[in-house]
Amino acid sequence: MERTINQSLDLFTYIDKIDVIGDIHGCYHTLVDLLHVLGYKCVSGIWQHPHRIAVFIGDYIDRGIYIPQVLDLIKKMVDNQHAIALLGNHEMNLVGIYSTGIDGQPLRSHKKIGQHHVTIKSMDKRDLLHWLEWFKQLPFFLDLGKVRFVHAAWRDDYIDLIKREYPTNSLKDNLSVAFDKHTKIGQAIRYILKGPELVLPPEVIKILDKKHSEYNLHEARIRWWDKIPVNPTYRQATLLAEVDKKVEQDIKKLYKPYPEDAPILFFGHYSMTKYPHLLRHNVQCVDFGVYKKNYLAAYRYNGEDTLTQENIVFVPYNKQDVVIPSLRQSHV
Ligand SMILES: [Mn+2]
Known about the structure:
This protein is about 25% helix and about 15% strand. By secondary structure, the protein is of the alpha/beta class. It has helices spanning about 30-35, 65-80, 90-95, 115-120, 125-135, 155-165, 175-180, 185-195, 200-210, 235; strands at about 20, 40-45, 45-50, 55, 85, 140-145, 145-150, 195-200, 220, 265, 285, 295-300, 310-315. The chain has a domain at about 15-165 and about 260-315: Metallo-dependent phosphatases (Purple Acid Phosphatase, chain A, domain 2). The strands form four sheets. It has a five-stranded mixed sheet with strand order 5-4-1-12-13. It has a four-stranded mixed sheet with strand order 6-7-10-11, with no helix packed on it. It has a two-stranded antiparallel sheet with strand order 2-3. It starts with 17 loop residues before the first strand and ends in a 16-residue tail after the last strand. Residues about 1-5 have low confidence and may be disordered. Strand 6 (about 140-145) and strand 7 (about 145-150) form a beta hairpin. The chain contains ten helices and 13 strands. Manganese (II) ion (MN) binds near residues 23, 88, 89 and 269.
C-alpha cells in the first residue's frame, strides 16, 4: 500500500495490520530488539514496516534512562505515518507538573515529581518543554469499531464523555479540567489513563510496607478485565497478589467490567510480571513489565475476531537499558 507523505494515517486501511506495543519506559535497546523481531527496519533514520503500522500504548518516559532516544524513535515513526502513539499516565503526569491552573498552582503537585526524576535528568529544559508540547497532542484512545486501544482501562460512558468534551481527543482541548478530580470529565480521563483503583485500609498498607517500598502504598489497581467474584479477596480483585484478606468496601462502585461481547480492546499500564499470556478472547494487556526486567511485549493484530496467544510477540529486557527506581513519592 502506497503511503502519501503529509497526509494523516488512514487507520482503517491498516485495521488488520497493527502491532500494539506495550509500555517502554525509557528502555530503548529493548524497543529496538522488539522492532527487529516484528520485522521493522530503520530506513533513513525512520523505523518502519513495509505493510504494517505500530500503535504505542503510552508510558514512554520515566524509569529507564534512554528516554530522549525512545521519544525520538517514536515521534519519527508517528510523523512519517508508521505509528500512532497514545498518551500514557506518565506523560500526562509530567505535563501536569509543568503546567499551571488559573489559581497559579501547578496542575499536578510538585510533591509527585519523584516519579519523573530520570526523565528530567535525561534532557535539558528546552527539550523537556518541546516533548511536553508533543504529549499534549497525543490521543487519549483509539476506537476503530472492531478494535480499540487505550493506556489503562475502557468504559463506554467515560469514552463517550471524552469524545464529546475533547473533540481533538487530546489534552489540547482543555488542559486544566483534565487534572480536576472533582469533575466528571477529569474522573473519566483519570480512569482511562490510570485504571480504577481502590483506597487501601491501614491494615492492608501495613502488610505491604515491607515489600513495596517503591510503590504507591495507598491504592491498589483493580483487575477490571477479570471476572471478579462476589466478596473478593485483594488477590482476586486487585494486583496485590500477596494479600488474601477480603475486600471490605463495595468495589462495584469503582469500576465497570469490560463486557465479553464488546469489541477487542488492547491496553498497557499494568506491568504484568508473568510470562506474556493471553488474558481473554477480547481483551489483551501488552505491558509485561520491561522496567521490572521482565519483557517488552506486542500483540500482532491481523484483524481476527478472537485474540490468540500465538500473536503475542515479546523480547526479554535488554541489559543495556539501565533502569533507575522512582524516588519514593509523598502523598497529599
Ligand atoms: Mn501507565
